[in-house]
Design brief:
The complex is a heterodimer. Chain A is of the alpha+beta class. Chain A is 22% helix and 34% strand. Chain A has two domains: 14-237, P-loop containing nucleotide triphosphate hydrolases (Rossmann fold, 3-Layer(aba) Sandwich), CATH 3.40.50.300; 253-374, Beta Barrel (OB fold (Dihydrolipoamide Acetyltransferase, E2P)), CATH 2.40.50.140. The longest helix of chain A has 18 residues, at 180-197. By secondary structure, chain B is an all-alpha fold. Chain B is globular. The chains are: A alpha+beta, B mainly alpha.
Chain lengths: 374, 268
Amino acid sequence: MTAKPLLAPGAARASTMIEFRDVHKYYGDYHALRGITATIRAGEFFSLLGPSGCGKTTLLRTIAGFEGISSGVVLIDGKDVAAVPANKRPTNMVFQSYAIFPHLTVAENVGFGMRREGLAKEALASRVGEALEMVGLKGFGARAAHALSGGQRQRVALARALILKPKVLLLDEPLSALDKKMREQMQVELIRLQRQVGITFILVTHDQEEALVMSDRIAVMFEGEIAQLADPETLYRRPNSKKVADFIGTMNFLPATILSEAGGKIEVTAKGFGAVTLTADQAPGDAAGTGAMVGFRPETLTILFDGQTAVDRESMATIEEVVYYGDMTYYDVKLDGTETATRISMRNVFGRPVLDIGTRTRIAWSPGALVLFR
Amino acid sequence: MKSSGLRIYTIAYLIFLYAPILLLPLFAFNDSKVIAFPLSGFTTNWFVEMWADAQLRNALKNSLIVASSAAILATGLGIFAARATTRFSFPGKGPILGLVMLPLVLPEMIVAMALLIVLLAIGIPLSIFTIILGHVLICTPFAIAILSSAFQSLDQSLEEAAYDLGESPLSTFRLIILPLVMPGIISSLLISFTISLDEFIIAFFLGGSETTLSVYIFGQFRFPAKVPAIMALGTILVLLSISLLASAEFFRRRGLARSGTKNTGGFL
């Protein structure tokens, strides 16, 4: 008898868990999903990110089986699930409202999906116990579900879904009802849980920070379409449109003129920066008809203090607004030769003063941090 | 003072509302055939006399059969209607619901006459069964109103969660929806029962030779000697109504406590 070969982590990651092929969904005349084509890998933490009404929840519900699709194909683990009802799919969902059954105890809630497995009472109790322990609710089994706090309900909902060992766990804005502190704590716990169980997690959220913190990959959705699908770093550093750049974090934009383009090099002059040479991979972006623009994140610019010199390039600017955040200070500055304010975020260092409005200052920047939208 | 004026108004209002009802037990225990003050002495004879009346016992039996059947049928129909209107949207939903709720405001006289004409035309003999039909018609809107609010307060994701966890639509209904709307169902049963029990016009028109309690009581008022026994019966009915209403409210509140939802007002 030969032992089953253990699946190498890399191998598991490479296989596809969910595939959308040109999925469309209409509600009457309303076109909610407009040709979604994407794959979600087995074992990854995947997020659907977008403003409300962008179709992210609809897309999640098509995986769960709560929404049918108008055309296209949805494959779960290689199987077309068009004819598979929600109660027969290898997916489980954590609902935005948690949907904890109020008339049952915590243990009855968690064990709900196990009823049909026909386990003996003790075996069921120990499985429920394990699941509760996994989400940090050991000993809560006998409590009435309606007496729990928001965070505890969330954990019960997680345990109830994970106990069935689904192939995919669907999370519909699970943290939106929690306060900031609780939300941050649950973010970390969700990541830990996902690594522990190795199940594919698909999270729907409108909170870009949450998506960046938690996800292996993110699909940014606008108006029923995926605008960009990438890992968090690529999304942040190389957004493929002004719209995505605006939605994820803060990005400054300055008008630019493209001088020449040859051999993977793009010569550009941008207001405030002068002439710069960009590489082709720095121009993934669609300006959506506003004319060419260079974009850059607030932390890629640095205010130079006395004695400091720029590693790369240097410009002059006037400070127009100062916002002090304790660990950070945000400066809105006008680079010489520009009309609009540019935001710079600086980490506050002990012993270094916060600059006043009106101060003339040198700014260090690097062409590598610019993104061209055209 | 403004508040004392309002207080007098409130007290007068309550006296007008309830004093007549208080007269029932007063005369039910009064040792005189004449309903008049002063009271002459205490007796429980009228209750004994009331119970000895075979006609009354028959009317009571009829009433209980009619009221229980009407309550169960109306609540059953109400469950379907409430589920359909709160969960699904379909063409003509508004007008259909309007028509279903219409008996709530339609004069009972008209309902009774129309039903009588139809029943006679198609040749169905008048009996307890025809009274039940009429009562289902007038109880169903109440049942729908009560059950709709019960179904409405159900979070739809509870159903989806049960379905997602592997249950069929039917077992989801049994395991999740039914227990959560049960207080509403019990309320609906009790209210329908009470409405049917004291309904007069339909019972009078459609009963044929069968009488319910309300019709019997009305008939007995022609005989002054019977009035004290009627008072005794009335006393029992008052107590019965209060306990039915109280238990309806008890179940409603227990349901709220169980599901942890907010009390949004009830009957008591």
